[in-house]
Every structure is written in structure tokens, then in C-alpha cells.
């Protein structure tokens, strides 16, 4: 294990930035989100939860897919967005990814990297080296442990731990070793004892968290119909505004829309995040299969807890990051759904 | 606050039991003290989850659009600020007044849990308020915080009083306050255009186009927003960062100008904490300056500055920075 003094982290960021893009939690306009590092930026590794999750790095909120140039009756198709750069997409580092958000990338991979592969997503994933960061101060809205995630021991190409004095650094993969070698002169050896101590004390906190023992036992494919027909969806969803906050701050929500934008001499075809909470989601030529907010609300949680796992060997597509718990304008969230519909232990 | 909650519960029970109303809209307990959710209660049994505390910041008025269309009367608990939205919705024929029983409830300001957490207090179990002192009890012990520092932004400058009441539950006096709600707007006005552009750009860049501000806004009561309607030709999701930065929120502020009551829900719900209410407040301030003081939602009838014409109306070319040239 290696370590680097906290006051030298800026040197590390600068070194990495010489040859790679560096996405890291940065405070901008009062909120911490992943941004590209630069000299003078206010990095905040201490922030437990960025507002937007790191999925933005692989699956940006909006991206151009292609362009059509029209001249009279001729249409020319032009490459746009990252397609133009092809496989030569500049390698970048995702720095400070928490264990829950790292697990979320696995959830996204199963969607975007399965056949037919989403080449936009794939290009960004291939270009990334992920440096994870263990949590040392989880808070009451966290429940990653329920999904078998160990917040104190995140995986990734490099795993790191932060305390008052040092960032401890453990390369796990070839990509991780390469990254380490970029800045090897900044590291010194050691830190095993400190990291073990931090893991033990954080685990004690995690075990005490109010949502540590949520019971998921009822969320199984065989209970699909029973859960779908539960009468309590009405009361659970009645205050839902139909906004997209929960879906857009969620690290695993993956739905997008493809739209055309008319320009002066053609069309830009782009994709952007979509939300199952929106009234035009699933709108088809014949109309919409989901016409009420209750149906949209039910879809979101059934997808996280039943549909996705039934297609992915039981892997839930919630990672317990708790962003929706903190951000829903009307205080509705997945925990309330799990407590209402989950197993007996929740009572 | 506990005594107010008990009184409210008592009234809710009585109204449901007597059959005077078919439902009561209020707040339901969450997982913590700070996450109550708006809820509709149709039976006395359901009222076991009823709550009214320092974290009931949500404005319940907009839920009445749907509720007032339902069979039977709906009782609703409205805080002072919520009653302005209620009046405005009645005025715009969105809520059927005769189907609603308004219970005006006491409000001494509501808290923003994010502001409490930002002061290093987490796992909050209870709060006890004495004047400007708030004792926050958490797993970590007890912390005393300064009340003005943990109020929701919309409560910081509130001087509103109940405009509608069929009955009221007010047990404690509200302290007199002397605050200038336009102070932040004035700061922005004092900036150079470049500085102001930089300010809004930094703020609006954070927008994730979740539409929470629009969906919570009582003035945004269109059955279908043009931006959600594929047939409108201008339907838009997050298609271009520039649109969020420069247009969407400004279009929305224009659209609700003269109707916005300054309830502040837009800023309360924004996941990125963009101070959206400042756009609306700038319009309110300008309307005050150009047409004389006007507060949307004070009544549920009458003409408004922007929907009526008088010969003395200021000419657009004579209005500069919200004042007559």
C-alpha cells in the first residue's frame, strides 16, 4: 500500500492531468459535482455524496449522436460527438468514486455493454481508470450494505482511503498500476494499519445506521404480480410531483430519449436522459401505456427491485446511495417503498 | 409545535367523523423527523401517521387542483404562504373554492434539513425551539443552533399572513420581523451585466432539468406543459446546456410573472440549490416599481397589473431596470 500527504494531492492531480482528463468532485456554484480538474478548482473529496452521480462521465445527460446536413434534396450524414474521436477518446480518470457509485457502474455495464453494445458508453468506459474512495463518514440516508456493498473497501482500478493526513492508495489492476507509475515519486509506502483501523471504525457506524437492516426478501421475480397489484402504490405515490429528480440524481437510472433538433441547414440527432416519471415517457403512436403518476412511480421502483434483478441474476439496480432520500422534493423515496412492500423484518 | 399538531389532529378527526369532508390533506410521518410527505387522509385510522412539525415546508395548495375535482369536500391545512398560492389558483379557476375547507395553521418558519446537516449535525431525532434558539437532538448528542441560519430560504424573509381561512389554528404569536425580501435582488442589480451573467451562468449550469421547480410551482398549473408535449414542436428535455443556462428558467419566470406569489417552492425543491426564487423576485420588484405595489394571491379576484390596461401604464420604452426613466 502507498500513501500521499493530503497537502500534496494537488501535485498528484496536476501530474495526472498532464496526460489524462481528471474528473473529480469539485465545488462549483455552491454544490459538489464531478468536474474536470484544473489549477485553482475547489476539490472536495470529503463530500459524501455529489449531487449528480458519476454516471454522467460515461452516460452524459446530453450528447450528440449524429448530424444530417441537408442541401436541396440531398442529405449528408455526419459523425458527431465522440464518434468523431472514435477509439482515440482521450483517456480519463474518475477520481473519488464511492463504493455505491462504483457498484452502480456494474449495473449500467450490464445494460449498455450487453448486445447490442452501446458504443458511446463503451468508448468512455474503455477510456476510464476508476479511482474509488472508501467512505469514513456515512450518514443516515446511506444503505449500501443492504445490497452487499462494503463502503469501507471499494474496488476499482485503484482503491483509496482518506484520513486527516493522508490519502492511502492501493492499485488493483493494470490500469491502476499504470496510473500509479505516472506519479510514483509522490507516493511513499505504508498505511496498512491506518486503513484497517478506519475500516473497523466505519463498519461500526454502518451497522448502526437506521436503514442498515432493510428487508428485501419479498422483492423476488416470483412475487412480481403480487407486488405489481399491491393497492398501496396509490398512497405511496400520491404526493409525487412527477419531476425527474430521483431519476437524474440516481447512479443507476439509465433511460434516455433520442431526439432531433432542427438547425438552419439540417438536423442534430442527440440523446438525453429521460425519466420514467415524465408524462411523455413510453409515449407511442397509439398513445401512452402509463397514463397515471401512480403507474410511473410503480414502474421506477418495480424496475429497481424486481424487473432488473429478474433479468440480471438477482442483482438489484439500487445501490443504496440514498440520493433520492435526500433529494426528493416531497420526501418520497425507495426506502419508504422497501419498508412498505418488503419483508417482515421491516415492520 | 406539538400542541398545534394535536389541535390539527383533533380537527381532522372531527371533520372526517362528521362527514363534513371526504378527505384531509396534510403531512404524513416519514422515516425521520425531517422527511414528512404531503398526504391525503380519508379515514380516522389513517390519521395515525399524521404529523405537523418544523419540517412541513411543502406547499399543499397545488394538490387541491386534483382534490377539488373529487367527490366530496377536501379540508386542507395551509400555512400563511400557502394561502397566497391558494387564492391565485382559485382566481385562475384551477381550484374550486366551494369544494375546499381551509384550515389556516400557525407557522413560525420551517427548517431546511440540509442546512442543519451542513452544520455538522446528522441523525437528527428531534428539535426543540425557543425563540431564536434551536436545540437539535441527534445520536451524537444535543447541539444548539441559531434558528435564522437553518430556516428554509423561503422562510428567511417571510412576512406573510393568512389570506384565507374557514377556520384557524394559531396558538403562538409570530415575532415581529423587519426584513427586506429584495435585499438579494438588489445585490444582483448592483452587479455589472457581465458579473450578473457570470453569476447566473454558474448557477444555471448546475441545472439537471429535472423539472422539480416547474412541477412544484403552483403558478405552473398547465395540464400539459409545452415542453412536455411532443405535438408542440418545442418539447424539450435536457437537449443543450445552453438552453438551461440561458433560457428555460427565464422563460418560466416570465410565464409566471404577475402570478408568482413568492412561495419559494422552486428554490426549496431544487436538487442543485439554484436560487431560482431570485428570478421571480426580480419580476415582483419590477412590477412593484412600474405599476405600484402588488402582491399576487392577496385576493382571489380582481385584475392584476399585467392583465389589465390603464392609460397611465408605463410605456415599455420608458421602463428601465424596473423603474420609470
Structural notes for this entry:
The complex is a heterodimer of chains A (347) and B (325). Chain A has 11 helices and 14 strands. Chain A has 347 residues and is an alpha+beta fold. Chain A folds into 2 domains: 2-208, no CATH class; 221-346, no CATH class. Chain A is globular, with a radius of gyration of 22 Å. The N and C termini of chain A lie far apart (44 Å). Chain B folds into 3 domains: 2-110 and 159-169, no CATH class; 114-143, no CATH class; 183-324, no CATH class. Helices cover 33% and strands 15% of the residues of chain B. Chain B contains 12 helices and 10 strands. In chain B, the strands form 3 sheets. Chain B has a 5-stranded mixed beta sheet. The mean pLDDT of chain B is 92. Chains A and B meet through helix 8, strand 11, strand 12, helix 10 and helix 11 of A and strand 2 and helix 9 of B.
Shape of chain B: globular
- In the predicted model, the low-confidence regions of chain A spanning at least 5 consecutive residues are none
Distance between the termini of chain A: 44 Å
In terms of structural class, how would the helical and strand content of chain B be classed?
alpha/beta
User: Rg of chain A from C-alpha positions?
Assistant: 22 Å
What distance separates the N and C termini of chain B?
49 Å
Provide the spatial order of strands within the biggest beta sheet of chain A: 3-2-6-7-8-9-1-10
Radius of gyration of chain B: 21 Å
Total beta strands of chain A: 14
**Which residue ranges of chain B are poorly predicted, with pLDDT under 50 across at least 5 consecutive positions?**
none
Total helical elements of chain B = 12
Amino acid at each position: 500500500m502507498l500513501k500521499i500527504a493530503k497537502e500534496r494531492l494537488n501535485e498528484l492531480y496536476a501530474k495526472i492531468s498532464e496526460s489524462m482528463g481528471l474528473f473529480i468532485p469539485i465545488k462549483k456554484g455552491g454544490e459538489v459535482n464531478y468536474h474536470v480538474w484544473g489549477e485553482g478548482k475547489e476539490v472536495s473529496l470529503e463530500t459524501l455524496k455529489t449531487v449528480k452521480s458519476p454516471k454522467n462521465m460515461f452516460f452524459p445527460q446530453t450528447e450528440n449522436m449524429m448530424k444530417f446536413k441537408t442541401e436541396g434534396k440531398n442529405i449528408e450524414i455526419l459523425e458527431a460527438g465522440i464518434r468523431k474521436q472514435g477509439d482515440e477518446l482521450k483517456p480519463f480518470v474518475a477520481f473519488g468514486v464511492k463504493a455505491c457509485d462504483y457498484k452502480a457502474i456494474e449495473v449500467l455495464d450490464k445494460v449498455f455493454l450487453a448486445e447490442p453494445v452501446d458504443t458511446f458508453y463503451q468508448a468512455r468506459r474503455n477510456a476510464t481508470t476508476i479511482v474509488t474512495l472508501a467512505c469514513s463518514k456515512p450518514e443516515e440516508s446511506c444503505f449500501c450494505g443492504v445490497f452487499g456493498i462494503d463502503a469501507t473497501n471499494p474496488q476499482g482500478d485503484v482503491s483509496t482511503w482518506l484520513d486527516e493526513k493522508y490519502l492511502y492508495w492501493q492499485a488493483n489492476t493494470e490500469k491502476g498500476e499504470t496510473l500509479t507509475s505516472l506519479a510514483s515519486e509522490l507516493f511513499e509506502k505504508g498505511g496498512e494499519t491506518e486503513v484497517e483501523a478506519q475500516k473497523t471504525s466505519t463498519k461500526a457506524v454502518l451497522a448502526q445506521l437506521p436503514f442498515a437492516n432493510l428487508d428485501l426478501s419479498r422483492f423476488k421475480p416470483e412475487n412480481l404480480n403480487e407486488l405489481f397489484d399491491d393497492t398501496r402504490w396509490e398512497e405511496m405515490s400520491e404526493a409525487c410531483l412527477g419531476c425527474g429528480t430521483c431519476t437524474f440524481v440516481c447512479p443507476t437510472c439509465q433511460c434516455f430519449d433520442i431526439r432531433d433538433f432542427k438547425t438552419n441547414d439540417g438536423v442534430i440527432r442527440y440523446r438525453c436522459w429521460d425519466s420514467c416519471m415524465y408524462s411523455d415517457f413510453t409515449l407511442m403512436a397509439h398513445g401512452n401505456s402509463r397514463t397515471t403518476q401512480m403507474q410511473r412511480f410503480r414502474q421506477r421502483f418495480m424496475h429497481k427491485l424486481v424487473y432488473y434483478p429478474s433479468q440480471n441474476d438477482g442483482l438489484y439496480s439500487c445501490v443504496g446511495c440514498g440520493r433520492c432520500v435526500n433529494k426528493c422534493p416531497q420526501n418520497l423515496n425507495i426506502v419508504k417503498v422497501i419498508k412498505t412492500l418488503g419483508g417482515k423484518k421491516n415492520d | 409545535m406539538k400542541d398545534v399538531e394535536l389541535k390539527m389532529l383533533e380537527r381532522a378527526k372531527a371533520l372526517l367523523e362528521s362527514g363534513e369532508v371526504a378527505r384531509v390533506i396534510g403531512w404524513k410521518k416519514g422515516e425521520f423527523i425531517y422527511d414528512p410527505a404531503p398526504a391525503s387522509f380519508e379515514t380516522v385510522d389513517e390519521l395515525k401517521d399524521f404529523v405537523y412539525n418544523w419540517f412541513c415546508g411543502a406547499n399543499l395548495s397545488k394538490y387541491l387542483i386534483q382534490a377539488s375535482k373529487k367527490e366530496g369536500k377536501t379540508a386542507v391545512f395551509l400555512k400563511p404562504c400557502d394561502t397566497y398560492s391558494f387564492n391565485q389558483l382559485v382566481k385562475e379557476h384551477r381550484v374550486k373554492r366551494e369544494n375546499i375547507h381551509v384550515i389556516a395553521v400557525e407557522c413560525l418558519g420551517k427548517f431546511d434539513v440540509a442546512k442543519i446537516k451542513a452544520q455538522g449535525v446528522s441523525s437528527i431525532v428531534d428539535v426543540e425551539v425557543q425563540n431564536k434558539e434551536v436545540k437539535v437532538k441527534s445520536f451524537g448528542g444535543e447541539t444548539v443552533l441559531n434558528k435564522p441560519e437553518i430556516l428554509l430560504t423561503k422562510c428567511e424573509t417571510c412576512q406573510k399572513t393568512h389570506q384565507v381561512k374557514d377556520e384557524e389554528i394559531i396558538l403562538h404569536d409570530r415575532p415581529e420581523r423587519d426584513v427586506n425580501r429584495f435585499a438579494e435582488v438588489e445585490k444582483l442589480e448592483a452587479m455589472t451585466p457581465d458579473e450578473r451573467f457570470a453569476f447566473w451562468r454558474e448557477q444555471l449550469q448546475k441545472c439537471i432539468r429535472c423539472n422539480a421547480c416547474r412541477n412544484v410551482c403552483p403558478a405552473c398549473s398547465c395540464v400539459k406543459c409545452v415542453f412536455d408535449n411532443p405535438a408542440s414542436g418545442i418539447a424539450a428535455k435536457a437537449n443543450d446546456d445552453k438552453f438551461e443556462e440561458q433560457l428555460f428558467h427565464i422563460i418560466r419566470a416570465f410565464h409566471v410573472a404577475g402570478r408568482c406569489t413568492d412561495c419559494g417552492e422552486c428554490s426549496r425543491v431544487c436538487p442543485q440549490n439554484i436560487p431560482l426564487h431570485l428570478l421571480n423576485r426580480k419580476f415582483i420588484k419590477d412590477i412593484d416599481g412600474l405599476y405600484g405595489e402588488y402582491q399576487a394571491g392577496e385576493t382571489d379576484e380582481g385584475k392584476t397589473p399585467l392583465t389589465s390596461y390603464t392609460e397611465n401604464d408605463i410605456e415599455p420604452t420608458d421602463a428601465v431596470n424596473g423603474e420609470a426613466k
